[in-house]
Design brief:
This protein is of the alpha/beta class. It has one domain: Glutaredoxin. Helix content is 32%, strand content 20%. The protein has 5 helices and 5 strands. It has helices at residues 10-18, 44-56, 74-78, 83-86, 115-123; strands at residues 3-8, 27-32, 65-70, 97-100, 106-108. Strands 1-3-2-4-5 form a 5-stranded mixed β-sheet, with helices on both faces. Strand 2, helix 2 and strand 3 (65-70) form a beta-alpha-beta unit. The two termini are 19 Å apart. It is found in: Cytoplasm. This is Thioredoxin domain-containing protein 17. Belongs to the thioredoxin family.
Length: 125
C-alpha cells in the first residue's frame, strides 16, 4: 500500500522531506492550494485534478510514498516571494503540480486532470 503523507506550508514540507534523505522508494509529491474551512481547496484546478490523481494512485508501486502538500492560501501562493516558487527542488510555477521527487517527471496544471498522464507518472509506463 502506498504510504501517504499530508503537510501544509513550506516549513512543514521541508521538515517532512528531511525524513526522506536516505529513502530509496519512489516519492510522488502533489502540490495543491490549501483547503478552506469547507475542506475543499481554494484552487478550482486542484479540486478538479485531485480525484484523477487519487484514482491513479492505485496504480503506483505499493512501496512508494505519496505526499499531499498544501502550498498556502491564495495570497501566499500568488506572492512572488512564495517559497515553493523559489525552492530549486520544487520550482513551482502553477498548481496543481505532481512530481516524482528528485526526478524529471512532472505534470502541471490541467495535465494533472489527464488520467493517462497521471497513471504514466505513477507507473513509468
Amino acid at each position: 500500500m502506498v504510504i501517504r503523507h499530508h503537510v501544509e506550508g513550506y516549513d512543514n514540507f521541508c521538515e517532512l522531506m528531511n525524513n526522506f534523505k536516505d529513502v530509496t522508494e519512489t516519492i510522488h509529491v502533489y502540490f495543491s492550494g490549501s483547503k478552506l474551512p469547507s475542506g475543499i481547496s481554494w484552487c478550482d484546478d486542484c479540486v478538479r485534478a485531485f480525484p484523477v490523481v487519487e484514482a491513479a494512485l492505485s496504480k503506483a508501486d505499493t512501496n512508494s510514498h505519496f505526499i499531499y502538500v498544501e502550498v498556502g492560501d491564495r495570497p501566499t501562493w500568488k506572492s512572488a516571494e512564495c517559497p515553493f516558487r523559489k525552492d530549486k527542488r520544487t520550482r513551482l510555477l502553477v498548481i496543481p503540480t505532481l512530481i516524482r521527487w528528485g526526478q524529471p517527471q512532472r505534470l502541471e496544471g490541467d495535465q494533472c486532470e489527464k488520467e493517462d498522464l497521471v497513471e504514466m507518472l505513477f507507473t513509468d509506463e
